[in-house]
Every structure is written in structure tokens, then in C-alpha cells.
Amino acid sequence: MLDVWKKTQRNNERPRMLGRNDKILYKLLLLITIISASFVILIAVFITLRGILPFITDNSGLGSVDLWNFFTDTVWLRGQTFVSTAYGAGFLILNTLYIVFLSLLISFPISVFTAVFIAKIAPEKLAYLMRTAVEMMASIPSIVYGLVGAGVVLPIIYNTARSLGTHSSGGNSTLAVVIVLAFMSIPTITAVSEVSIRNVDENLEKASLALGASNIQTQFKVVLIAAKSGIFAGVILAVGRALGEATAVSLVAGNSRSGPNFGLFDITSTITSTMLQGLKETQGIDYDIRFSLGVLLMVVIVITNVLLNLVKRKVGKLHG
Amino acid sequence: MGKPQKVKDIFMKTITYLGSGFSLLFLTITMIFIFSNGFGLISFGLFTGDYHAKYYAGRPASVECEGCEVTDELKGYYSSVYGIALYDDFDRAGNVVIKVSYVHENSPLLNMLDTNNPNQSISLKVDDVVTRVAFFDQPSALTRNGASMMIQSMDQSTEIRELTFSTLGGGIRGSLITTLYLIGMSLALALPIGILTAIYFSEFAPVNRLTNLLRSFIETLTGVPSIIYGLLGITLFIPITVRLNLSQGANLFAGAMTMAVILLPVVIRTTEETLKSIPNSYRHASLALGANYTQTVKKVVLPNALPGIMTATFLAVGRIIGESAALIFVLGTAVKDTVRVNESSTTLAVHIWTVMTDEPSNIELASSIAFIILIIVLILNIGVKYMSYLINKKLRGVV
Predict the structure, then answer these.
(1) pTM summary value
(2) What is the complex's ipTM, to 2 decimals?
(3) Which residue of B29, B207, B287 is in closest CB contact with A9?
């Protein structure tokens, strides 16, 4: 950035040295930037507008969807499709949050240990190898994770459930979704954690070592604590992605129509997997209700994000 | 250092090794699964073949095959009466089929009367699947009898009443073309908008609230799940394309617009980072030579940002190839063999979803497509690394 320019930028003025051509370019660029920025508003407005339609119209004679029922009911649809409008997504919210929480239980420790390993413990060559591996994991598309889940995880879960004497629907289960989401979260949390671990002030480390703490002690009790804010940011990012993941989840969920499904070997469904169900018709209430689910998904993501950010601020304050 | 501390240290160290071991294990399992399941189907025909098999039934016009004695070793079993060789194999859905491995140039099966359309003549080609051969004087030979039985029956019989066969099917040509179209169209939209926005932020934006607001809006796009973009495509872009008379329903234009919105934050962030890494001395030099700001941006800033723009392009292509949820909504899930930009069709990733949600699901074909996707993603990753190497080299040269 130009210093002369930067000065005018700081003074909250338009650059004064612009000639006529420059002004045209400036305006054009501003316009395009506003267009780029407007998409997030377009998304919110258009999807919300269509998402509330089932609640305020009578859906061509079927009656409107009950909002309270939609948020609390434990059965996706009571009655027949295109006949009834008694939609309920309460159990989907619970399922989604439950699944994401469980997947975090797996991915969080693995990711943090991997990040410490890459940043501090591994020999240089091994660290390079692991970093490349994490980058590769991050670039694998989600549908491929879904495919691996369907091809590898489902048979294992099916056989495990059988040997435990319980039943699982071909392996489609809460556990399968949890494992697939954990797979997908690991690169995100690891990459962000590794950067924040490496950015910890070196003096902190040296001070700890000088006080007689061993290297490992320092990494876990000083560096990790100092990096916790960054690690938490990685967790927030991963949770956001896991909440919104659709295709991979729908391939291994089994798509239950009622819930909540807390059993590990029971079939389940999330907000996103329900949105992908039965896309044969592209009109009518059963299609439009997807937009309501989309709005619900955005609301869940925003609320989770805000809550986690509050926690992050609290956690960041602990230990100075 | 006390002994208990040493034990603790070794324990914690082992745990970090285990943690990364798990990460590596997950990656290895993914790779091994995709490669072992997908490699079997990778062939030239997979890329060029139709997904939907075409079915034919025909009757040979003659029973003579002159000079059809073949001495070479042929795959499977050879009928010197009809001049074709058949062998047992699996199709791309894993079903047992009888395939044609060789057709002699004088074979009567190259000139058959189409049963469904008597004026037309059809011919059997290599790699076609023969499902039934019916005769006048003996029972039909079917797939379940095997290739050797079928050839034997053909040789023994005096005349073929009807030969039912189909093309192999299960190819991905349509999805491949759609993916290429989508890459071209989405980049054509996303790159100009993204690069110009990045130039605004890096070179022109004043430090004020509006800039911060615009920036935070664009950053929010990163956190929006792709399935939500799919809904945006349905409510906004498909109606726009329909209004413009480009299409009647789901179409590639709307898909490209949706993809462009998804790509915007990636393109903007990557390009802006590169623009910021260009030393100010470059700009000063240009201005000191009398160039105005527009010329400076065009002739000095942009050319130096080229590796960054390439990086953005690679990342964008990777995102397009891997995107599934949004495109399921905007492009539909029906696999097409003839791709038209104003109709629905599937990309490679959506093709995986389609074959996995079919009954029964086809893990082999899905893995083959995933294999192709992974190879492309791998190449793109190497491209990104090379570009960042170029940028670093350039900057080192300046300082």
C-alpha cells in the first residue's frame, strides 16, 4: 500500500491525488466490492423469505406449518407427505448438536496432540511429512470422506454392533456420522492449532525452561495454555463446518424420521441430511420446508458461534 | 529432573506420537480405500463412455464370415462362424456380464437389422455387452450361461434369430464435461470480481467503517455452509436464468453463479494477501516515473500479483471439483451423457453422490471418480506450493 495514500486512508478521506481516470477506477472497484459484499445479505434475505413461507401461507389448502411444533416436535412429519403439514425439526437440532459434540470429543485431542507434535516435538523431516499429510486431509472433498465412511466405517460398525449383540441398520448410525465428521475436523483444528502454538512468544518457553521445567512439561503446561485462544478458534471453525456438512453425513446417517436418536448404533439424521432427503419433487410443501430447515441451520450455526466465542473470551482470560 | 517427571515426559511424548499416528492412519485408510477400490475401473473407456447404457436387438443379415479363421490368441472364446470373441467380465456396477473382446472385420454381426427399427442397420462393437443370443433351433444363450456356452451355441446353431446387446454404460464423460464447463464458467465470473475486490481492499480502500463492514461481510461468506449456497442458487440464480430465457429449470449458468459466490472469499483473500506482499518500492518507482494510480495498478501491481492469482485459481478449481451439496440443489442429481449449459447435469462430485444414493449403491464407480478427483486435487496442491515458492523467491530477491 502506498504511504502517501495510506495517510489519506487513515484520515478517512478519499485519496486526494487521484486523477480523473483514477476516480473512475476507484468508483468501479468500490461498486464491485459492494456487489461481492452484498451476497451474504442476499443469502440471508432470500432464504429467510422463502423459509418463512410455509409458516405464513396455507400451503395451497393444507394449512400452515405450526412454528412452535416445528421447533419442538420429535417426529419429522406426522401424517402423509403432501397431505399433512405437521413438520417437526426439534429432534434434528438435538441430533445435530449431539453428533457435532461427540465428533469433537474424538477430533479435539487427536488434533491438539498432532499440532503439538508437528510444531514442537517431531524432528524436522517428520514434521514436514505430517504437515503435508494434514494439508492433504484438508484438501480432500467432503463427498470423498462420505464415500470412505460408507465403504470403510459402515462395515466396521455393522460387524461391531453384531458382535456386541445389538442391531445397526447396515452400519448407518450416529457413530458413523461422528467418525466421519471427526475425520473431517482433524485437519481444520490441527492447522489452526499448529499456527497458534508456533506463534507463542519464545520468551515464555525460555522462562519455563530456565525455571527447570522439562521440554515436554513446558510444551504442555506453558505453550499449550498460551495458545489456547488460537486452538479454540480452530475448534469454532471446525464446529461451524461440521454443523453445515451435508453430503458426507447423509451417506452414513441412515436418515431417521423421528428422534432424538442418542443411541450410538441407531440411525440418525441431522438438519442437513434431512434437507437432502427425497429431492424428487421440486414443488410443494415438502420441497419448500427445506428452506425453513436452511434458516434453522443458519440460526443454529450463528447461535453456536456466538456462544462459543463467549466461551473463548472467558477461556482466553484465564491464566492471564 | 526427578525420575517420575521423566516417566511422565516420555508418556506425554508418546501420546503426541499416537495422536499424529491416528491422523496419519485416517489419511492412509482413506487413500488405500480409494486407490484399491477405484483403480480397477480406471480406463480410457471410463472417461469417454456414456453413463446410460444403450440397448439394441438385431438380427444378422447373413451367416457367412469369410476368412474369419483367426490364429492369434484372443481374450476369451472365439467363434469362427460369426467372427467375434466373447469373455466373462464385470460391468462398472459389479454385475457379471459377457463382453465382446474382438470383432472380425468380415463378421456378419457388423451388419445387423435392427429389430425395433427395421430400416436401420446396427453393429456390434468391442466392449459391448451381449445379454442374449436367441436361435431358431435351440434355446437362447444368456449371460448366466457364460461366454464359453454362448460361443458354443452360436457355433452349433444354423442361424441367429436375435442378438440382444448393449453398450457398457457407467462412463463418466458427461460428468467430466460438466465439471470442465463449470470450472470455466465459475472462474470467468469469480476471478474478475474477486481480483477487482482484492485490488480495492489492498490499494484503494480508505480506513473507515464502510471498509470494515464490507470486509466482514465477505469474511462471513467463508462460514456459510455449502448447502445454504445451494438454496441461494434455487431462490435467486435459477429464477434469474429462467427470467433471462436461458433455461427452464436447473442449469449450468445458475450452477456457475452459485459456485462463483462460494469462490469469492477464497479468491479475494488469496489475491489480497499477494497484493499486500508486493513491496511499496515497486509502486513508488512507478509513481515517480510519472504513472498515475490506474497505470500503476495495471502495469506494476497486477503483473507482480500473478503467482497469487494463479494460487487463487488453483484453490478455486479444487473447490469446484469437490463441491457437492450446493450443486445437488442447483444442478440436480440426474447424470447426463449429453451436456447442455441450459440443462441440468452432474459434476464428478455429484456423480459420486448419485451412484452412492442409488439402490444398490456402486462403491467401485464412486471410488474411481473419487480417485480421479484426488489426483486432480493433488496436482492442484503441488501447483499451490510451487506458486508460493515463486512468490517467496521473488520477495527474497527484492529485499
Answers:
(1) 0.88
(2) 0.90
(3) B207
